[in-house]
Amino acid sequence: MQSLDFQQRATVCRDLHGWVDEIARLTQPQIVHWCTGTEGERLKLCELMQHDGSLMSLNSQSTPKSYLAHTQAQGIEPSRRLLCCRVEAEAGPNNGWADPTYMQTVVGEMLDGCMQGRVMYVVPYMLGVPGSPLCQSGMQLTDSPLVAYLTSTIARVGRLALSRIHATGQFVRGIHSLGLQDSEERLICHFPEVDGIVCYGSNYPQDSVFALSAHCRRLASIKARQNGWMAEHMSVLKVTGPDGEPTFVGVCGPTGTGKSTLSMLIPPDSDIVSGWQLELVSDDVTWLRCSDHGQLRAFNPLIGLCGTITNTNSHTNGNLNQAVRENVLFTNVGMTENRQAWWDDADGALPLACTDWSRRQWTPQSRRPAAHFDARYAIPIQRCPALAPQWNDPAGVPLSAIVFCSRRSETVPLVHESTSWRHGVLTGATLSSERITYPHEAPTSPLFDPMGFRADCGYHLADHWQHWLDQARRPGVELPRIYHANWFRRDWNGRFIWPGYRENFRVLKWIVERTRGRGDSMQTPIGVMPTAQGLGLTGMGWTRDTVRALLAVNSEGWYKEFDERDEFLARFSTRLPPELMEENDALRKRMRHARKMERPEV
Questions:
Q1: What's the predicted TM-score (pTM) here?
Q2: Among 240, 264, 389, 392, which Cα is nearest to 323's?
Q3: What sign has the CA pseudo-torsion 29, 31, 36, 42?
Q4: How far apart are CA 328 and CA 337, in angstroms?
Q5: Which residues contact 139 (CB under 8 A, 6 or more apart)?
């Protein structure tokens, strides 16, 4: 019986090549190829995938050096995403758990001979900028050329990573096999105590590309907690005012709350003329560390961008729409007859016909979308037309603000500032959001997704919240202000009140002003909120009723919110930081004693 003993192999095979040889003997590939990450190698991988039909080249005139791949449409089921650590309680209710010794036997049997007749790609990668205090290395062994290609798109692959592995002797050992792609056998296991990851049966990028999620988020979050830093599902943007002074803002939130759209936002034309500028530092994954001077600094561990492409066009996300015109790999979008990528809401007229994401014929009369709702893109980060020079600064950038985004049709106003770091942590810990719906559909009930990190936190969520609270205990620390933004408030007719997209920059400007001790604002029980003047809405044709609806603090709705938060937090009672319950009680008391909160002055 085969058993994948990470600990034994890590001890016996201290040499990197020895470990690779051991896994090759287990999986029995026909060829072992060490990846270099060079452009020539990337082209050869594309040629190989085009030859076997797993990759299609797109129109070289409209999108040069671009491709389309079809992968599994959804990730591995939560029940098959396992954290394999010795103490089950460490996994928490947010993670599936399995005994590591037992699971090493299970995956050992799965991997036995799984790469017969295939190529095993040895992909050394590095996360973080060389010289950064948070830099990490990994080695992913995979029989998927698509995984090898995507890893070299988003992470530093090749000689640089190998040099660091040989110098430090430390790296995350990852094994991935497509297997038979049987949905009942798909599995991903994280072994944090021995820095190991195994994924079997999935070619879904969020599961199979370890540098994108399994290592960069889940294992990194565990290592971060152990060593005093933080790994978060966060984008970071740089906002520069007319005075030339930059402000760095972190943005967290569940999928569909506008996080990535905000990070690539193009300011309104009037603000651009006035000298405002917004640039991207990192998207979707950010590592944080307190500097010796007490600043919370943000680091981008990746060199590529990978996110959902649906609903992207020149109006909703002009920068991304421009970025995906060249050197991009799409997954699960449609393809027109002239080999152009197509997704619903893309710019241009509807094609008369195309092949949809499931490789079926599609026409405008089809009662289904041409692209999967989770269709994705992957591009080098340099493709972003508004990229901040600091994106790869080994010293990171100082955060002045953190914004938690949610998707709520009622109760939660457009934006408010937390009263303290503790209150801000409560805001993130109780973040809830509705599922994305079409405009004519009724919103769904909100689901709690703390910090937008519930699916990716590699340990007990309550311990994650405590880790955030502990940052305030560092001597001389200067922590950023915390905000909550909601672009999706609806009126009594079910229509969105706020126009969103480029207009969201008004909120960012107010946040920047607040970090500098300015910004017209008003005190409310839930925190500081902007006035109409603070958002620059005066003289824009906005009625007082519309502004009130955006900024309303409805006591009845908030009492219900407090009760739901209490119920959610109670699920973590054995490890819940008491400060969070105290903050929720304090919020309730402020609401109870507030006067005239139904109609704030605007």
A1: 0.94
A2: 264
A3: negative
A4: 19
A5: 16, 19, 20, 122, 123, 124, 125, 165, 171, 172, 173, 174
How far apart are the C-alpha atoms of 17 and 21, rounded to whole Å? Answer: 6
Position 101, amino acid = T
Nearest CA among 280, 548, 515 for reference residue 397 = 280
Does the structure show a pLDDT above 80 at 322? yes
Nearest to 198 by CA among 214, 217, 185: 214
Neighbours of 593 (CB within 10 A): 8
DSSP element (H, E) containing 405: strand 397-406
- How far apart CA 559 and CA 426 sit, in angstroms, is 16
Give whole-number Cα distances, 213 to 140, 198, 285, 552, in Å.
Answer: 13, 13, 9, 38
Name beta bridge partners: 398. Answer: 297
Q: Convert 229-245 into a string of H (helix), E (strand) and C (coil).
A: CEEECEEEEEEECCCCC
Alpha-carbon distances, residue 491 vs 410, 451, 550 (angstroms): 8, 26, 9
What is d(CA 461, CA 206) in angstroms, rounded to the nearest whole number?
21
DSSP letter string, 155-216: SEESHHHHHHHHHH---EEEEEE-TT--TTT-EEEEEGGGTEEEEES---HHHH-TTTTIII
The C-alpha atoms of residue 385 and residue 545 are separated, in whole angstroms, by 38
Can you name the residues that pair with 81 across neighbouring β-strands?
188
**Adjacency order of strands within the sheet including 334-336:** 341-342, 334-336, 354-355, 361-362
**Distances in whole angstroms, Cα of residue 468 to Cα of each of 221, 459, 471:** 12, 14, 6
Note the pLDDT tens digit of each residue in 177-217: 999 877 788 999 999 999 999 999 999 999 999 999 999 99
Mean pLDDT of 59-73: 95
What's the CA gap between 532 and 228, in Å, rounded? Answer: 40
Mean pLDDT across 299-322: 96
Which tokens in the block code for residue 98?
């399995």
Q: How far apart are the C-alpha atoms of 505 and 269, rounded to whole Å?
A: 11
C-alpha span between 265 and 277 (Å, rounded): 10
**At residue 183, what are phi and psi to the nearest 5 degrees?**
-60, -30
Amino acid at 153: T
Closest CA to 576 of 444, 448, 429: 429
